[in-house]
ABC transporter G family member 9-like
Amino acid sequence: MEEEMADIQITQLETAAIFKKTNLPVTLKFENVVYKIKPKKEGLFNSSSKPEEEKIILKGITGIVFPGEMLAMLGPSGSGKTTLLTGLGGRLNGRIAGSITYNGKPFTNAMKRYTGFVTQDDILYPHLTVTETLVFTALLRLPKTLSHEEKVAHAEAVISQLGLTKCKDSIIGGPLLRGISGGERKRVSIGQEMLINPSLLFLDEPTSGLDSTTAQKIVSTLWELVKGGRTIVMTIHQPSSRLFYMFHKVLLLSEGNPLYFGRGEDAMGYFSSIGYSPLVAMNPSDFLLDLANGVLDDPQEDQASVKQTLVTAFKTDLLDSVKEELRKFDDQQVHEKSHKGKFSQWSNTWWQQFSVLFRRGMKERKHESFSGLKIGQVLVVAFLCGLLWWQSKDIQDQIGLMFFYSGFWGFYPLFQAIFTFPQERMMLEKERSSGMYRLSSYFMSRTVGDLPMELVLPTIFVIITYWIAGLKPFALNFFSTLFTLLFSVLVSHGLGLALGALVMDQKSATILGSVIMLSFTLAGGYYVHHVPSFIAWIKYISISQYTFKLLIGSQFEAGETYTCGINTTCYVEDFPAIKSVGIGDKAISVVALAIMLVAYRLLAYVALMRIGVTKK
């Protein structure tokens, strides 16, 4: 026992030691970075013949950050800080001009393994605890060469290093769910990136919305990480004077133009040398932001002219020294070192990713899937149907119940599924941008994870309504009805997934889903028996029509009779509602639904392929 405890302590010490020093120091160099976008046309009837002028977001930014340095980008809102940070992190969609190199090489999948990116908004699952969040991230991002126990030990080491031990068993929480504090949530986001022991760490406004003390703790944590030879780049809006002097380098931006790049402690001296100094002692970052906005103590000074003067001064007095620093950097030495070893695109196998994502998804969604509200809704409707169709022997009523089955279990799973991917879009973008897992493993884990609730509720619904309504009391008829309904539910759920993935907007997808499913229902063969030929094609793609036909086939067979008058019997296949859809050709309906089942889910998968992928 003592030997086992000693082994555990040694493992924890070794794991903690990993984070003291980075595996591969990275020098980030960016030279004359320019980024342009084309403004989107607003309005449906915008027929202006004038060509749209490109808007320049970044106007020739140059700089270099060495291992063991922390660069802070300052500037007012709209100055291009986040755009530059996203570009340096290899996540900027579109074309970006200029040169950005990492140890002398462009951004690659190998470099992605050494890069962490913390977004401004903490994108975390609210119902997972701090430990669960970091352990699942460790299992997904750390290489398969490490055992499960070693990955968990890494997560525990990060929790300890970031001071999250007190809240490690607390849930993350969200806007409507009480959880950990904002500062702790930010440290969890940083911890997710720290798990891979990054050489290069990007952070978008890590202190945004935090009080000065909490902000100090966050930056102090980053300061400790820098000591291990890491390169840290962050945007920050208005740091306190204590924070300002912790930054090794500062980049000041104004409307995409650089106004200063250099050591933080030298910034005030530089601006004083070109004639700009505060009249009273003040926070350096406040003064720099005033300059970036063109605001001086003299209200008569034109803001635009002040900005232009500062831009010109940078190009005249500072740019040459920055370029000289870039020239001194010897790319070749680090270039040789960074070529050692080859990296596969993924850290883990497909099955490992699937199993971790499945377990994480079940833990996060169990409160939602098996909520009392959903179960109560289905039970109420089931008993209401049972009472309305109580031991019904009338053929018209029985056919009506079959159509209600197809209608209700067409709409219900559709609207459950429509919200799936729009709700997870931000998480999917974040994790796919980090190269955390394959899209196929995520999609399959989500599909399999949703199956229990997809199939349990309709099964309960059929068990209740079938016997109360007095349908045929034979096992073959019952299971035929049940399996037909479950098949239909899977198809409708697939349609919902496809619509949600294509539109990625909950309101628009809901409206579109309503129109499509109503069209399918109207063409289902119950309301209209003689559909005009020019619109009859809808029934061939209608989920409701094929489901209705199979449900009728589960209760009635050709040659059966029913009482159609006094001492008169008729064949069920001649009943108008059955005659319009037919009672044979069940195989065609099964094949049609099977094709839809595959096609809708394939469409959803293809639509998701654009999420989290950087377009070049």
About this structure: The domain at 25-38+53-121+200-331 is CATH 3.40.50.300 (Rossmann fold). The radius of gyration is 31 Å.
